[in-house]
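Practice problem: predict the structure.
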Amino acid sequence: MKKLALLILMLSTILSSGCLPTIIGTAATGVVSVGQDRKFSELKGDIEIWTSIKNQFIQYNSRDLFKNVSVKVIEGRVLLTGNVEKAKTKALAEKISWIPNGVVEVINEIDVNDDNGLKTSAKDMAITTHIKTRLALEKNIKSNNYKIETVSGVVYVIGTTKSQEELSKAIDIISKVSGVKRVVNYVLIKE
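Answer:
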């Protein structure tokens, strides 16, 4: 009951600050997932980091610099993926990601190219959806602990797990999905 009250308080604070798009975006990116093996305080910190980074990106997005950049946050670890047109933009995204309090690591996997085509995005989305479905259907994998992002066929995985066995099984499933070129693993094992 306390967790629910804290969540309502946090959401009302964010809503009263005029950040409704942030709430919608947070839900869409999976920063908050029911059933994760994490404490509410860890989730709250990650939401605050994600919100800060995304709000900074929005300030620059009048020039569409970060329109193809995805941000995932797990335990203060920030994973940046996607495409930008210039190396300076990639560096700026990383610099912005270090600003919020609580950031312990920034993993910058942003590609510098103009491969932002609809066809590539659709394929990547299909791969990500297929992976999430396969992991969710697997009995011995807690799929909510894994955040998946696919960029040009490369699958980035960040999250936490309680065993090497579960992680190995998840990576094996991911690597066998059609269209996956490579799997980049940033999952922490927490026993």
